[in-house]
Amino acid sequence: MLVYLLRRLGQSLFVVAAMAVLVFVGVYAIGNPIDIMISPDADQAEMEAAIARLGLDKPLWEQFFIFVGNALQGDLGKSFVYSTDAVSIILAKLPATMELAMLALVFAVFIGVPLGMIAGLRPHSLAGKSIMAGSILGFSLPNFWQGMMLILLFAVLLKWLPSGGRGETAELFGIPFSFLTLDGLSHMLLPAINLALFKTSLVIRLARAGTREAALQDYVKFARAKGLSSQRIVLVHIAKNIMIPVVTILGLELGSMIAFAVVTESVFAWPGMGKLLIDSINLLDRPVVVAYLMLTVFMFIIINFIVDMLYCVLDPRVRLSEAKA
Amino acid sequence: MTDVLKDTETRDTTARPHWRASPLLRFGAEFAESPVAVAALLVTLLLALLALFADFITPQNPYDLMQLDIMNNMLAPGETTFDGEMTFHLGTDDQGRDMLSAIIFGLRLSLGVGAMSTVIALSLGMCIGVLAAYFGGKVDAVIMRIVDLQLSFPAILIALILLAVLGKGVDKVIIALITVQWAYYARTVRGTALVERRKEYVEAATCLALSHRRIVFRHLLPNCLPPLIVVATVQVANAIALEATLSFLGVGVPITEPSLGLLIANGYDYMLSGKYWVAFFPGVALVATIVAINLVGDQLRDVLNPRLKR
Amino acid sequence: MSAPTPEAPTLEVRDLKTHFFTREGVIKAVDGVSFQVAPGEVLGLVGESGSGKSITGFSILGLVDAPGRIAGGQILFQGRDLVPLPESERRKLRGSKIAMIFQDPMMTLNPVLRIDTQMTEAVLAHRDVSKARALEICREALVKVGIASPDERLASYPHQFSGGMRQRVAIATAFLNEPELIIADEPTTALDVTIQGQILHEAQALCRETGTAMIWITHDLAVVAGLADHICVMYAGRMVEQGPIDAVLDRPAHPYTVGLIGSVPSRNRRGGRLFQIPGMTPSLLNLPEGCAFRSRCPRADIACLEEPPVHTATEGRQVRCVHPHDEPLEEMLS
User: What ipTM score was computed for the predicted complex, to two decimals?
Assistant: First the structure.
């Protein structure tokens, strides 16, 4: 187990290193780092100070080590707009994005898995076919368009839910969260549904395929031969088996959810990391963009790592074989 | 036993006698088995024709400022110009632009960007993938490592970052779309080419001492085409959706050449005040395009790959 | 033991027909099979793959999947016909009165559930006992099939077991609720020969001890020879011959049975040529008219184009053939 952990950690470090090189090449070699990392409003003295600090007057390989050294200390530059540390600006927006992504994940699982199982158990029924048609639609509709239609329907026409913003927040461990207040939750609902729609379609397909496969297995027939009720067979024997691919894929998709939050947050004016990224791109606040990129890569790797561990917990077979390896 | 064989054979031929005609006819007949797919294909063709002949079809050129009249701004669908000369079937935007015309021109840009980026990414990915499969070893390992690394990040993130560095522009959007797409093709082609490479006709070609280039381009590539066509169809839809998303976010095409995504973004603010048409109709056009192409792709996959048949 | 038992049979199958209604046509997987099993008795159900022997087993349990269904006949379990019973009634019988052991022990246990979960649920589904008591029952059952340190085993996952061990767990599970009838579908085929012997022995001992009737489905005549009291040979969905095991093996009447026995290597006939049945099992979709075996039968003639009748001979022997053999096996093969 420990060996496996270390090996996975090694792979992750490799990816971080590769991304660091890519970002470095993108910013320093292709682009002009003076444009990218130093505010255009800076006067001559500021500019020279920054050049010295970033080591832009030094050879390229030396610059790389300065970049890496700074990055390791959590210094990915200063925002032009806010004049503060880019990393801390992004981290301040992180909770809003995370709570949105988490709620969306919950929706995707608790709506997608049951629907997928129904479609898998009764593939030729009207319900099964409608669910699959819905999932194809969920895949085809662009995310931002879905979000706008949700606003048009629930906020503009029916006036049931607010169209944007974060609503009231309450603090937990000193961090403001929306899901702790009723008003905050009502603000979260539409964006979370929007963010969840695509993943729900994915979960439906996964759950359906898994159910269809599991239903044909001998262990299901053996369970029936034991005289178990169909509820128990579906809810225990089949559900436990399809949870493995669902959790794995969803975990991996959490990363892409954070990326797609860019769209959802823009549509619903949700003040998270994604909206910050778009605002920063539009304001040419490049240090924030670079910092966002590095932080996201880092987060991706952590998420993948956690998912791998979860996978081991869920599937006893993996647990054993990895322990042996 | 012989009876059995004979029986099944007659059954097959009686069921589908026209299949024997030609591969193309057979392909068409199989495709036409799904009425939904045929309808989707017709919609796709119609949209493509609209886009091609936009100049001749649209009631006005939405980007010729001479033809616009600010007096006509924000008219609801079905309203007419002040003198009643022209009816705006889908309403107008904040600059008095006919939405129907704007949508058809936007469609042209969206389809153009999607198709162009797909063709280039396809050619690029195809070459890289087939080279990886043909040469194998280190070449293969390095290429596939890059592909895996790229595919582990969401396309939208890569495209966003690229555009943040490159700036706005139709050409830049196409570059971003190519960058996020080539890896899919490379992986698909490599997978099929690896299978094809082991087949006897490649061995025969090698025995005849044909050049690498000839074997790869004349023998290997044509046999990798069917799965590629399927991936490409789905990817055109994805590319269009991605372009729309990027433009909606304001990092895609410039305001002077609005695609469907940008049209939707422009109408977004008005939607909250109930003036839905500026954003709604471009959205309908976009969704119809994507869904139609996806449905065609689905059916193509079923026809071209019998193993995947549901 | 070889004579028909005077006791009332645990199970009597009469003219069972299980058909699959597919788009290509009706597949008559089981088409007119009759047999009976008495308490404590073992019936060997023998046939090639595709002969319908497993479907017969599933029909008795009521586990035939769509598009298949029982199209005719009766399944009398302790005198009660199971065919018209609603699913809820049949479920109550499954696992309690009638249990089944499957072919591949690697596939029958759910890989992601612990053994205790999978065993206790079988008890709890049929008996109103506490979880602790259910666990106790499972532990005893495991000991009975020869599993050492049952507590440790109960807390394990299936993949931590060898194939033989898994099959023992499956057998223990089948015996949990002291069933009246056990259907064993080739339970030893996937196992090593030495393990096979042990499993056979244990299953037989359990049946004798508890008075459980057993149907042992197999393609392996050697297994049946050492285990069964009666034998029923199936071909292409039909019963072709049945009777007491010794009688059938010594004087097989149906040409197919003769071929089956002849193709088993035996020490007595060492050096001689092995017999082989020419051709392949016909597709059940397009069975030839009349006797299904006629295309491969050395004795077939024009009379075989008619549906062959079932002859009932002495000692409860039945054969479905127009030209049955009437001499001892040695003479036929020499």
Answer: 0.81
